[in-house]
Amino acid sequence: MKFVWAFIVGGGICVIGQILMDVGKLTPAHTMSTLVVSGAVLDGIGWYDPIIRFAGAGATVPITSFGNALVHGALQELREDGPIGIITGIFNVTSAGISSAIIFSFLAALVCRPRG
């Protein structure tokens, strides 16, 4: 049953993004930013963690989880280190994902030739 809920919640997040692009006429960049900010706001008010516990990967894989990770790390470090923790917490939680994206993009650029 966990897989079904992960599929429904993750698919629901994707449907919201598609509706923003089709009905709201938002560009993909605006849609992505909206979903990241939505994840950040939901984590800020304490609603994203219950969604993660309920849906698992359905809530941690979509782009909303990136906003969640930013705010979650910042709030956690704020409690531990004070105001400076807001900045360090953001990098602490998301650094592995960002570093991986940079490294794999670089490797893909070495292997693939751009079309021109």
> How many discrete domains?
1
Mean model confidence by pLDDT: 91
Stretches where pLDDT is under 50 for at least 5 consecutive residues are: none
What structural category arises from helix and sheet content?
Answer: mainly alpha
Helix proportion: over 70%
The total of helices stands at 6
Transmembrane segments: 84-112
Protein name: Stage V sporulation protein AE
Keywords: Membrane, Transmembrane, Transmembrane helix
Organism: Paenibacillus agricola
Q: What is this entry, summarized?
A:
The protein has 116 residues and is mainly α.
Question: What does this protein look like?
Answer:
The protein is an all-alpha fold. It has one domain (about 1-110). The chain has helices at about 1-20, 30-45, 50-55, 55-60, 65-80, 85-110. The N and C termini lie far apart (about 45 Å).
Topology:
Elements: H1 2-22, H2 28-44, H3 48-55, H4 57-60, H5 64-81, H6 84-111
Task: Based on the model shown, name its key terms.
116 residues, 0% strand, globular, SpoVA, transmembrane helix, transmembrane, Stage V sporulation protein AE, Spore_V_AE
